[in-house]
Amino acid sequence: MLDSLLQFLITGVTVGSTYALVGLGFAIIYNASDVVNFAQGEFVMIGAMVAISLLGAGTPFPLALLLAVMATVAVGLVLEALAVEPARGAPVVTLVIITIGASILLRGVALLVWGKDFHAMPHFSGDAPLHLGSATLLPQNLWVMGGTAALVLAVRQFFRRTSAGKALLACSCNRTAAQLMGINVRRMMLLAYGLSAALGAVAGLLVAPITFTSYDSGVMLGLKGFSAAILGGMGNPMGAVAGGLLLGVLESLSAGLISSGYKDAIAFVVVLLVLFLRPSGLFGKGAVERA
Amino acid sequence: MPSTEAALLQVEGLCSHYGPVRVLSHVSLAVRAGELVAIVGANGAGKSTLLRSLSAVQPKSGGTVRFDGRDISRLPAHRVVAAGVCHVPEGRQVFAPLSVEDNLRLGAYLHRQERAWVERELDRVYTLFPILGERRAQLAGTLSGGQQQMLSIGRALLGRPRLLLLDEPSMGLAPLLVEEIFRVVRELNRSGVTVLLVEQNARAALAIADRGYVLETGRVVLSAAASELLADEGVRRAYLGR
Amino acid sequence: MHMRKRFFGLILGAGVLAAGSSFAADPIRIGTFLTVTGPASFLGDPELRTLQMYVEELNARGGVLGRKLELVHYDTVGQAKEAVTFVKRLIQNDKVDVIVGGSSTGDTMAAIPEVEKAGIPLISLAGGVEIVEPVKKWVFKTPHTDRMAAIRIFEDMKKRGIRKFALISGDGGYDKSGRKQVLELAPSHGLEVVADESYGNKDTDMTTQLTKIRATDAQAILNFGFGAAPAIVTRNVRQLGITLPVYQSHGVGSKKFIEMAGEAAEGVRLPAAALVVAEQLADSDPQKKVLLDYKAKFQAKHGEVSTFGGHAYDGFFIAVEAIQRAGGTDPARVRDEIEKTRGFVGTAGVFHMSPQDHMGLSVDAFKMVEVRKGNWVIID
């Protein structure tokens, strides 16, 4: 039983790590502009797809990953510049609908470019399972967990230590005041979208070897990442990370200990319960941006 | 009208609208280097809108703004700050979830490369407002109203202002604090910072100002030396409560 | 891609006319409603291409009974409600003579009351047993059923001495229907289902469910699933060091599965449509020629074949041959002739329809295959 529990936790943390990265992307854009960017899941898909295509064309591994992240960042910037920026000043609902439209468009383009098939990406460092007692995990699981941890710390340091990070925080809590500090708010929005896109792309690269990618695999990840961000307290980047991990572990434990058929339902109920008791999420406003 | 020669800030025919409503109607004014100019007027006269239009966080619908001889009417807000116009907005607008020191450093955002200058300037602000130095690690949102006002002014000072726009610094503060704030504003002006001050508390503002403008429903209706305005019967009746 | 929903066939027909062939009588109208776009496009897309391909080919050869064929198509996007509307339109406005379609069981079931009322024969391309059980007068289908797949797997398990197995399935319609059949039929085959786990079809990790299965005394694992999930299950099984035999359903019968599951796929068994292993069939097998022909034709135009396109081939030719035998398009006579289909060699198997059996396939239409060295090998 204990061994099984360990396996459930390993699975939960791996899956949760992806949710966390997607949730983090949601939180950053929400913070900067009050907009829930529903194309966040598509960033994950694009990152993985571009990398798979490049690898297929014979690009060396590290270069393919780097280019995939850059391509996704470019998509994020274009999304901001061509879809979100022109509608600046519109109600938030309008902007959210724009991002939903963008996500549909991106899926459509992906369908045209990569077809309906699932695509597999090679593991970063082999797929021989590692043993932990009677529990096993793949080297890629470690990549996912380690990569997530590294990125989360990097984002945290970015907001804590760099002036660009501080400036982004300033935009998120008071756009006008930020402008009065001489901060180019427009550029900060681009930064937020670029950063979110990069996070999404990296999440996609980390999990692609385990999960396969298809043009619509961003949908589910987007929803889970959104739940993670809500659970952690929308607008709190570290909350979104905690929310993602919690959601992943919760799903895995419900599937393992109660019923796999109800795992999503159970996780959903817990999220609702948390929001009922703490409407602003586990780490909602107040503790915000202290990250 | 004062002579326009050597004016640091020269505003001509400035108009601004909120939707279809015209809030500023052909406002013209000038501030010379080293002056402390007060704009007084009733609530809703357009005083804050005037400052917001000058710093470009509120769109202008007409008129020109020249700063140090250069047309800054079309510049976006962050470029206006770079030109040397720093704005202490109405209601302080500090970055509540950030620390006092982070707030101040964000004030120096455009000068962040000049580390030594920023450190010196931080020290200067902490000397000017010792309470901020004591609370440098505290979150700005947890400060009292007066302390937030000090922080907001300090933050603007780190922007290296050649012209400081002050919007209602006395709002909501206890009389003792109002006095303190105005003392500091006066001091800053004496040390060489040009100040354009918007105030509902006309008496206190005119008491420290060199000159003043009276704004009524978006128009300049009167401009004179501060002492003359203080003595003016109409002004006394309308704005000085007597 | 296939944003245009309708009348590709009409345009095609017009093209053929313009090319000079002349047809004396009214065209024979074949109606179809498929899920060409949307989440189940993997069904409707090859089906429509197949129908278009053969309509074009037969017209080029002078049509059927000297009459031109005309294909009228609507895309249901997998919405059963749309299916009803489109079938009504096919019958009332387009006045089709026969309907080949319904990509999914849901779409087909929704359409059945309409064809039964109007008395127009329909040959469904969907898998669900309920389409033809109980028998409906005007309704037929060509694909083998998930029940047949389950029975085929059970037979193989028994041969290997397996008595207890663990079931793991997804949350889609295909998966759920398969799971129901497995749970219903296992006891009558002397098999015990010791675990019944499920996952979301978009899930990315099934190790939790498989860890639970590992803790049971199952002698094999049966995964009823579709898309990427079965490949993930297969890889997770090996990752957890589980050495039990793994069975998949006919839903993974494509090279893509082997490609995605990689090494882990070795030894996996599943009941596959003959189309998947056409090259390996004995030369004496009557299906071999039909399958290789269809495969060659489809791949020359559209790339990789799928069994779904094969279902459309079967449905189309059963309809065309019935019309030929009926000597016209009188709905009642066409229906009778479809029911009298005997020994029609299709891609899914050799069809023997009867008043009691509106599908006409037997269990051995499925070939039991195993993955060996990255390829399918027929073992039974």
Structure description:
The complex is a heterotrimer of chains A (291), B (242) and C (380). With 291 residues, chain A is an all-alpha fold. Chain A has a domain at 14-119 and 138-218. Helix content of chain A is 74%, strand content 2%. Chain A has helices at residues 2-33, 40-56, 61-84, 92-114, 139-161, 163-173, 175-180, 185-211, 217-232, 237-258, 263-277, and strands spanning 130-132, 135-137. A two-stranded antiparallel sheet of chain A has the order 1-2. In chain A, strand 1 (130-132) and strand 2 form a beta hairpin. The model of chain A is unreliable at 286-291 (pLDDT under 50). Chain B has ten helices and ten strands. With 242 residues, chain B is an alpha/beta fold. Helix content of chain B is 38%, strand content 27%. In chain B, the strands form two sheets. Chain B has a six-stranded mixed β-sheet, with helices on both faces. In chain B, strands 2-1-4-5 form a four-stranded antiparallel β-sheet, with helices on one face. Chain C is of the alpha/beta class. Chain C has two domains: 8-144 and 288-362, Rossmann fold (3-Layer(aba) Sandwich); 146-272, 3-Layer(aba) Sandwich (Rossmann fold), CATH 3.40.50.2300. Chain C is 41% helix and 17% strand. In chain C, a hairpin with a 4-residue loop joins strand 11 and strand 12. In chain C, helix 2 (41-60) crosses helix 11, helix 3 runs parallel beside helix 4 and helix 5 (146-159) crosses helix 6 (173-185).
> Judging by the overall fold, what is the CATH architecture of chain B?
3-Layer(aba) Sandwich
N-end to C-end Cα span of chain B: 26 Å
Oligomeric grouping of the chains: heterotrimer
Number of helices of chain C: 12
Largest sheet of chain C: 5 strands, parallel
- Overall radius of gyration of chain B: 17 Å
> What's the average pLDDT of chain B?
91
Assign the CATH superfamily of chain B: P-loop containing nucleotide triphosphate hydrolases
Q: What CATH architecture label of the largest domain in chain C applies?
A: 3-Layer(aba) Sandwich
| Rg over CA atoms of chain C | 21 Å
